[in-house]
Design goal:
Layout lengths: L6 E3 L8 E5 L1 H9 L6 E4 L2 E4 L3 E4 L3 E5 L3 E5 L11 E4 L3 E4 L2 E4 L15 E4 L1 E6 L2 E3 L4 E5 L5 E11 L4 E5 L12 E9 L14 E13 L9 E15 L2 E3 L12 E15 L2 E5 L5 E7 L8 E7 L2 E5 L4 E5 L2 E7 L2 E3 L3 E6 L9 E7 L2 E3 L6 E7 L4 E5 L2 E2 L2 E5 L6 E5 L2 E2 L3 E4 L4 E5 L2 E3 L9 E3 L5 E5 L2 E3 L6 E3 L4 E4 L2 E3 L12 E3 L5 E3 L2 E4 L8 E3 L7 E3 L2 E4 L5 E3 L7 E7 L4 E6 L14 E4 L8 E5 L6 E4 L5
Parallel strand pairs: 1-3, 2-4, 3-6, 4-7, 5-8, 6-9, 7-10, 8-11, 9-12, 10-13, 11-14, 12-15, 13-15, 14-16, 15-17, 16-18, 17-18, 18-19, 19-21, 20-22, 21-23, 21-24, 22-25, 23-26, 24-27, 25-28, 26-29, 27-30, 28-31, 29-32, 30-33, 31-34, 32-35, 33-36, 34-37, 35-38, 36-39, 37-40, 39-42, 40-43, ...
Antiparallel strand pairs: 54-55, 55-56, 57-58
């Protein structure tokens, strides 16, 4: 039994390879004469074809370096490939395909793919396709599975370097399975003079796919794109630079995009950079109300480096979008990270179960935003461990959800607009030295109900914490040097309204700019203030302005330790919940008059007028 493989040299079947003689018939004849498992060999030469259509199973096409297939024919209709192969167990390697015909629609050009394959178990390696008017490499739809495209080079094609699925033939239109693009370059695709579509490095409509280790640079619209991914998609270790060359604002110009439908998506360890126009976005993931069937779910965006993007570095757009993790990404010199619903604003326009963690978000040319907007009922949002200029979270009016914001480092206060929602803002660091706003953290009943614990607020321009309404647990926070603006109007903690619990906070102002440590403007029964420590270089450590003239003073307990017992100058009641033994610390005591709580066993407690005592 012989194990030899039949090899047919294309020139033995009449091919000339001079670039001017039509060699289409030679290809058809050579392939037809091959047995199953045979090899079609192309020696160096330029093989001119019209519309080459091959149907064969178990076929290998192997080319010598320098062998090229070209076509200048303008077909009678679009979607006619230069070389179309249908079959199972196909191998195509070391081949160059180029279009040399009319490349603009105005002059009568048609959309032509370079290499188009249909079938199962297809392997394409080291193939270069360029200057076609549509896709360099195209695959079939539902009739195609297990395609590997390895180290290919598709450039200067009219629509995309690679395009999969949704063929013009209704019998094969749909989504292929197991498309794997490994290595290679897909650069400078997109021909606006020919069509109105974006130019893609690749666009994948698939059941499952992987894109690993490719470069997709300087494409007219997008680098790597998927409109449909029904089961799984991995986009990892790719390099996308300078995409989004359109300048008129008519296109979505994006480095990496997964939209409409995407399930079990991983976008990891990619580099996306240098997109200089206003419409440009680094990574975009999100559902689309025009395609509502499946939505976006189980998405992980991790370990990516996104740099020098004119618009958002990461943008998650919500429509039937659920279970999204954005973690360990570095965003430099972008507008930041945005999560917001897509239109229309119906019940599906939001993101459920969102985790944003350990991202670095900076912008040397302005603010880097971390913005989550327009959320709906039942949403669960966690934002933790991030470094960012700012952070904001908003729920639609009359909608509520729950959230955790913890252990972040921010250069601006958090902006919350979460009516009736429940959440915790804990353990965050706010360095507000360069913040140009009027005050620090604002808490309001219209924003949320929950805790504000263990945070550190440094150099607030106004009050460190401003409580406008609601019931909050404000505890164990550290506030250093509030009222940085020097107006003397900022406080450590300002209570405008509400019934918060203000306990065990540490407030320190050694520059004399703070008005009072804790100021209460409006009395509400249930307000509790105790266990707080205040260091202040002026007299007005504690203030209460329920009526004119009722301001807190201090009583010097220990001149050496500069300890003061809290009291106030008007007849005290139990309204504010002071406890016996509450202490403040005064750096430069000059006033030691006021009232001191000596017993709070019942009623309003027992208070002693300490005027004149030292």
């Amino acid at each position: 039994m012989s194990n030899s493989v039949t090899i047919n040299n294309i020139k033995d079947y009449g091919a000339v390879g001079n670039g001017s003689t039509d060699d289409t018939a030679a290809f058809t004849k050579a392939v037809a004469s091959l047995p199953s498992g045979g090899i079609l060999y192309l020696p160096i030469g330029t093989y001119l074809v019209t519309n080459l259509v091959l149907v064969k199973n178990n076929l290998t096409i192997r080319a010598e370096k320098g062998a090229k297939i070209t076509s200048s024919i303008v077909p009678s209709a679009s979607d006619v490939a230069i070389m179309k192969i249908t079959g199972n167990n196909l191998v195509i390697s070391d081949l160059e395909i180029a279009y040399t015909g009319i490349a603009t629609a105005k002059l009568g050009g048609k959309a032509r793919n370079g290499l188009q394959v249909h079938g199962n178990n297809i392997y394409i390696e080291n193939v270069e396709v360029h200057n076609t008017t549509w896709a360099g490499i195209a695959t079939g739809g539902v009739d195609t599975s297990n395609v590997t495209i390895l180290n290919c080079n598709c450039h200067h094609n009219g629509m995309a370097g690679i395009s999969t699925g949704n063929t013009a033939d209704p019998k094969t239109s749909g989504y292929p399975t197991e498309i794997n693009v490994l290595g290679g370059s897909y650069n400078s695709n997109g021909n606006p003079s020919f069509n109105t579509f974006d130019g893609y490095g690749m666009t994948l409509d698939v059941i499952t796919a992987k894109v690993i280790g490719v470069t997709a640079n300087y494409n007219f619209g997008r680098g790597i794109d998927s409109h449909y991914c029904l089961k799984s998609l991995q986009i990892s270790n790719n390099y996308c630079e300078g995409n989004g060359l359109v300048t008129d604002g008519s296109k979505d110009t994006i480095g990496i995009q997964v939209t409409r439908t995407g399930r079990n998506v991983v976008i990891s360890n990619n580099v996306v950079k240098d997109m200089k126009y206003l419409e440009c976005v680094g990574i975009l993931v999100g559902g689309d109300a025009s395609y509502p069937t499946n939505g976006i779910g189980n998405v992980v965006i991790t370990g990516n480096s996104i740099e020098n993007i004119k618009n958002a570095g990461i943008f998650v757009r919500g429509y039937k979008t659920d279970r999204v993790v954005i973690t360990d990404n570095i965003l430099r010199d972008t507008l930041g990270l945005f999560v917001q619903p897509n239109t229309p604003a119906d019940a599906n326009a939001h993101i459920k179960n969102l985790l944003i963690s350990n991202n670095i978000n900076t912008n040397t040319g302005g603010d880097a935003y971390l913005q989550i907007g327009g959320q709906k009922n039942g949403d669960f949002i966690t934002v933790t461990g991030n470094i960012s200029d700012s952070l904001s979270l908003a729920f639609y009016t009359k909608h509520k959800g729950s959230f955790q914001i913890k252990d972040n480092k921010l250069l601006q206060p958090i902006t919350l607009n979460c009516p009736a929602s429940t959440g915790n803002v804990d353990g965050n660091l706010f360095e507000l030295l360069n913040y140009t706003g009027s005050t620090g953290m604002i808490l309001n009943e219209d924003y949320y109900k929950g805790s504000f614990r263990g945070n550190t607020i440094l150099n607030s321009p106004g009050s460190g914490i401003e409580i406008c309404n609601g019931t909050y647990d404000v505890a164990n926070n550290t506030i250093i040097n509030p009222s940085r603006s020097g107006s003397g109007r900022g406080n450590g903690i300002l209570v405008i309204d509400g019934t918060p619990k203000i306990t065990n906070n540490y407030i320190s102002c050694t520059d004399g700019k703070m008005a009072v440590g804790v100021r209460i403007d409006v009395y509400n029964r249930g307000l509790l203030i105790n266990g707080n420590t205040i260091e202040h270089s002026t007299d007005n450590t504690l203030g209460y302005r329920n009526t004119a003239g009722k301001i807190y003073a201090e009583y010097l307990v220990d001149p050496t330790m500069k300890q003061f017992q809290m009291g106030y100058t008007a007849a005290p009641t139990d309204k504010l919940g002071w406890k016996v033994g509450d202490l403040v610390y005064h750096k430069s005591p000059t006033t030691n008059v006021g009232w001191m709580c000596v017993s709070s066993a019942s009623g309003s407690g027992t208070w002693a007028n300490m005027t004149g005592k030292a």
